[in-house]
Amino acid sequence: MKFIKVENYEKLSRIAASIIASQVTVKPCSVLGLATGSSPLGAYARLAQMCSDGDVDFSEVISVNLDEYVGLDGTNDQSYRYFMDTNLFSKINIKPENTSVPNGCAKDLKAECERYDALIESLGGIDLQLLGIGLDGHIGFNEPDSVFTKETHEVVLDESTIEANARFFASIDDVPKTAVTMGMGAIMKARKVLLIANGKGKRDIVEKAFFGPITPAVPASILQLHPDLTVIYSEN
Ligand code: GLP
């Protein structure tokens, strides 16, 4: 594991963007596993700038997102599809048809989860997986549990996750109670993993996840076993 501590969010975002841009430059048809949340916003803005400056080309990139709320479709401004379209896909030259986010409105969610895993498999897996980390140690929406779940699956969100994510919704009652998330199998099989975390509030969970015991009670701790993991942390 490479653990990089930086002085501020600006620097974290610049380093993360340059790692992603290097991946795409070295392998133009990279499969990128992408994340939502506030942590990647700076890196996404930087990538958009690099793309408009002609310094990185996403025209052959394929993306697969980690997760989606159940019941929110892509037109809902709180859905992760909407987040990705607004904050990244509309600002870079990726082909819309090359972007995937799990469908949280699928009638048959089990079939949707199987379709998503089959899609990732058919792409040959993920080249670079970008992750944030939840305050309870979740990655994607893999919440603390007694086991690590390998496949894409439906999850019941923890109360603490609902509270943390309520800041994006009009009221806490509007936060969906369930979500679909990529499982640990596809994340751990990604050839590279880049996790970004910022703020003093994340210090304890970062410490537990990367310097504590590996346990499904802290889902991100499984990443300690990944052969090519980079963690970038900024306290400010
Ligand atoms: C959500 C997402 C995660 C993300 C986490 C942290 O729960 N499902 O993928 O890592 O939030 O978000 P933030 O970066 O806003 O702290």
Could you explain how this protein is built, in words?
With 236 residues, the protein is α/β, with parallel strands linked by helices. The protein has helices at 9-26, 41-52, 80-87, 109-122, 159-165, 184-189, 203-211; strands at residues 2-6, 31-34, 62-65, 67-69, 99-100, 128-131, 153-156, 178-181, 192-198, 229-234. The strands form 2 sheets. A 7-stranded parallel sheet has the order 1-10-9-6-2-3-5, with helices on one face. The protein has a 3-stranded antiparallel sheet with strand order 4-8-7, covered by helices on one side. α2 links the parallel β2 and β3 (62-65). α1 packs across α2. Residues 35-39, 66-67, 132-134, 140-141, 161, 165 line the site of 2-amino-2-deoxy-6-O-phosphono-alpha-D-glucopyranose. The site of 2-amino-2-deoxy-6-O-phosphono-alpha-D-glucopyranose (GLP) has 14 residues, from α5.
